[in-house]
Amino acid sequence: MADFGLYAYQEEVVERALRRENIIIWLPTGGGKTRAAVYVAKRHLETTPRAKVVLLVNKVHLVDQHYTKEFKPHLGRDYTLVPVSGESEEKDFFGKVVKASDVVICTAQILFNALTNTEEHKHVELSDITLLIIDECHHTNKDSVYNKVMGCYVEKKLKGERPLPQVLGLTASPGTGSAKILDKAVEHVLQICANLDSTIVSTKNCTLELKSKVPRPIKTYDIVEKRLEDPFGDHLKWMMQQIHDFMVLPADFRLRQSGTQEYEADVVILEQRGVQEKNRLLAQCALHLREYNDALLIHDTLRMMDAYRSLEDFYSIKSVRAIDGIDFFLLGLFQENQVELKNLAGDPRYENPKMSKLESTLLKQFGPEVQSRAILFSKTRKSIHCLNEWVLTNEALQEAGIKAAVLTGAGNGVTYMTQNEQADTIRRFRQGSLNLLISTSVAEEGLDIPECNLVVRYGLLTNEIAQQQASGRARARDSQYSVVAQKGGREVSRELTNEYLEELTGEAIAKVQNMSPQVFDRKINELQTQAVIRRKVEEKQKAEKRRRNTPASIQLLCRNCFKVVASGSDIKLVDNVHYVNVSPDFKEHYKVGGQVVLEKTFEDWEPGRTISCNNGSCNKEWGFEMKYKQIALLPNIAIKHFALETPNGRVTVKKWKDITFTVEDFSFEEYCEDNFPDIFD
Q: Is 634 part of any domain?
């Protein structure tokens, strides 16, 4: 193993995998789990007839990263390796790719699709794979796609079906699953082991070497006092009270303290209730209160002007949607107070003290003659863009030589990044043309980011897994891990709780590792049997839910103006992904906007223009038109923008999977016959 460059602690944790046991490698971030997995894969390929290694990842960018950085350099000369993601053409004939390759690196969704697809060129059996490696395997729980893949495995195992692949999981922390006491934390660790059909392995004999190779950062709490005066926040709360008085809360409903996540949860429920009770006053007031609460949350974390601009942006869009007196009141309230709010937001006497503390924390690490790298973690995409603007316009930070950029998850929309933008930002950070990443949780795990001297957590309430992942980014010698927070605030108490939970995770793992093989196997079998039964019951319940109503008995209403615009029978499912309205009459209810631009291209369809409600001045966004097979122009709608009138009353759902009627598959042939009858004569 020495010629492969493994440390002794890595050699120790792979021993049982080399004996073909199913194991989970538990090593801290930066401990070289992936390198250990590459070594296991190499030995497996050398010693196993017709070996087939599949590495599963949970994020698209990790496909190319693991392929380029780890697997190809060590295995590429002697074996056929193929990276496959949703963006690669290989996904369309994945079954053939697996047959023709020695090592496949792919997202878990692609393998799950292949396990459930009946088309020969796309289908894969678990028995085709001899070694299944699962990266960041603590995500193998509940309804995650990792757990769906392993659910197929466990079901076959319990039925006695063989062969099955050897399983190798990799994690920096399985966590406690929100458990606060040891027995419950042990149950959580056992459940992860059962889901992966694996034993958890860590270093016992080489802990000193591990600590020296992966040093822990020096942790500091950079605490600030609460604002003595807060006229901007007070004015926002006064405006919210005007809305409370205007809408008249139901007698059985209580809103918790404004400016909190709990209040946001309350107004989300209130909006749903307003829609369900056909009470537009309640629904619209709740939507506006959510925006004010969001401004208070921003005000607590960022600059006052950032909070003001979030409201200004909302009302600049909302101003074209005044349908009735409710909207005129809500718009008028903001417009009447807009100048006052802006003046208060620009008053430096009341600025957020956390911002000056964040500035001093960064300046301790950066200077014109100091070579440092840092990551600043914050909660939302909106907050990291505001922080980036602050850094770029802050004279002291610019004089200290800080060169910052944002790093967010990949997706569609102005606050997301493309895969290429992500890769380019990380490359520039590695090369030194950037020295501060301002990031959401995307940088906590998986990404190949170089050692940092400083990690700052700012305005974050996360679990112990995310905290450990973030802390593991500060890997340079004598690095700092800073929590910038308000005295007595929730961030500090959450951070202290996470420190306790990190210790509890270690204790729970030790207890599981010390179980006798007989007791461990019995518990694992019990949990696996229960999981299979639970899954079958849930599938039956979902099927029954979908049969609760007929499509024709469902009406779709615009969620903003409540106008009926479609029937459930108008909706069809394209390629098991897109819910489209095939009724020609639907076009009368919407208007088109700007062209939708997606980074990816697709085999059978391309995006068209956005669509929105054309009832008066409603303008509620509904989705976008998609061109299918270069012929069919189909309105692709998001169910969260509609209310559903059912035989049992009006309801709202977030996702299509939650609807209570069955949607038939879209027939391209029928569509063409209906819309182009002359070519079939």
A: yes
Q: How far apart are CA 523 and CA 512, in angstroms?
A: 10
Q: In whole angstroms, give the CA distance from residue 520 to residue 103.
A: 32
The total number of structural domains that make up the chain: 4
Please check whether residue 657 is in contact with residue 663, taking contact to mean a CB–CB distance below 8 angstroms: no
250 located within any domain:
yes
Measured between alpha carbons, how far is 208 from 203 in angstroms, rounded to an integer? Answer: 10
Does the residue 252 lie in any domain? yes
Question: Could you say which of 455, 487, 511 is where a domain stops?
Answer: 511
- Give pLDDT tens digits for 521-574: 999 999 999 999 999 999 999 999 999 999 999 999 999 999 999 999 999 999
Secondary structure (3-state) at 17: helix
Is 573 in a helix, a strand, or coil? strand
Task: Identify the CA nearest to 628 among candidates 548, 574, 559, 553.
Answer: 574
Distance CA 676, CA 681 (A): 10
Of 307, 294, 232, nearest in space to 267 by CA: 294
Tokens of 131: 């070694």
What percentage of the chain reaches a pLDDT higher than 90? 74
Q: Name the one residue in this structure whose structure tokens are 């466990």.
A: 154
CB-based contact 473:375 (threshold 8 Å): yes
Give the pLDDT band of residue 603 (cuts 50, 70, 90): confident
HSE-up (13 A, CA, CB side) for residue 532 = 15
Four-CA torsion 14, 15, 21, 25, nearest 10 degrees: -30
Residue type, 544: E
CB 437 within 8 A of CB 408: no
Question: In whole angstroms, how far apart are CA 10 and each of 40, 214, 388?
Answer: 11, 12, 38
Q: How far is residue 51's CA from residue 101's CA, in Å, rounded to a whole number?
A: 10
Of the candidates 377, 615, 509, 676, which has an alpha carbon nearest to the alpha carbon of residue 388?
A: 377
pLDDT band at residue 18, thresholds of 50, 70 and 90?
A: very high
Q: What is the amino acid identity at position 580?
A: V
pTM for the model stands at 0.89
Cβ(629)–Cβ(605) below 8 Å: yes
Whether 319 has a pLDDT exceeding 60, the answer reads no
> How many Cα atoms are found within 13 Å in the side-chain-facing hemisphere of 549?
20
d(CA 91, CA 352): 49
Kindly state whether residue 15 falls inside one of the protein's structural domains.
Answer: yes
Give yes or no for a contact between 435 and 403, defined as CB atoms under 8 angstroms apart.
yes
CATH code for the domain of 480: 3.40.50.300
pLDDT in tens, 155-200: 999 999 999 999 999 999 999 998 999 999 999 999 999 999 999 9
Classify residue 308 as exposed, middle or buried by CB count within 10 Å of its CB (0-12, 13-18, 19+): buried
Domain holding 48, by residue range, is 2-212
Residue 24: how many other CB atoms lie within 10 Å: 26
Give the whole-angstrom CA distance, residue 445 versus residue 466.
8
Whether 209 shows a pLDDT value over 60: the answer reads yes
What span, in angstroms and rounded, lies between the C-alpha atoms of 385 and 169? 35
